[in-house]
TrEMBL record:
Organism: Sphingomonas endophytica
Topology of this chain in the membrane: Single-pass membrane protein
Transmembrane segments: 12-30
Entry-linked Pfam families: KdpC
GO molecular function: ATP binding; P-type potassium transmembrane transporter activity
Name under which the protein is recorded: Potassium-transporting ATPase KdpC subunit
């Protein structure tokens, strides 16, 4: 009977080791190599560099912009805000008092910055990952008067920058990458 157990268990152990090597080592190394060859920028994090070559951000991971002269991103629930090591939503549901208080406070902050009319939802609610790099065009345009005022630029020029940076996703949703928009804003101010 002992021999029967060995003959029954041996194939299971061999297959486990084989698939661990195949799927735990060979496949990830092959996919990383293919990704590096075909899409090197994306495989390395879609990093954005300044003129000196210094990394200033990523097109796929949001970052906080707090200075008034910049377009600000949506709130982040990731750690202390845009913390890549703590990427997650807040897990606060629509009936959460804490969420309602935070959104009310964020709406008041946006009103204090000069946002009039309806406040776009993405200016006061966090994304599922807490690291969303994009805003809706409406959220960017709501901030345009503040940015124009602080920078001393014509509001029409700032709105034109928003329009120029607006892209459409594969699913047809329009969005504005905040890092790209702020870089275009800095270039326009020179």
């Amino acid at each position: 009977m002992n021999t029967d157990i060995k003959t029954a268990v041996r194939p299971a152990i061999v297959m486990t080791i084989l698939f661990a090597i195949l799927l735990g080592l060979v496949y990830p190394v092959a996919m990383t190599g293919i990704g590096q060859m075909i899409f090197p920028a994306q495989a390395n994090g879609s990093l954005v560099r300044d003129a000196s070559g210094r990394v200033i951000g990523s097109t796929v991971v949001g970052q906080a912009f707090v200075a008034g002269r910049y377009f600000q991103t949506r709130p982040s629930a990731a750690g202390r805000g845009y913390d890549g090591l703590a990427s997650s939503g807040s897990n606060l549901g629509p009936t959460s008092k804490a969420l309602a208080e935070r959104v009310t406070q964020d709406v008041a902050t946006r009103r204090g910055e000069g946002v009039t009319g309806d406040v776009p939802a993405d200016l006061v609610t966090a994304s599922g990952s807490g690291l969303d790099p994009d805003l809706s065009p409406a959220a960017a345009l709501a901030q345009a008067p503040r940015v124009a005022r602080v920078r001393g630029l014509p509001a029409a020029r700032v709105r034109a920058l928003v329009a120029a940076q607006t892209e459409t996703s594969l699913l047809g949703d329009a969005h504005v990458n905040v890092l790209a928009l702020n870089r275009a804003l800095d270039a326009a101010a020179r």
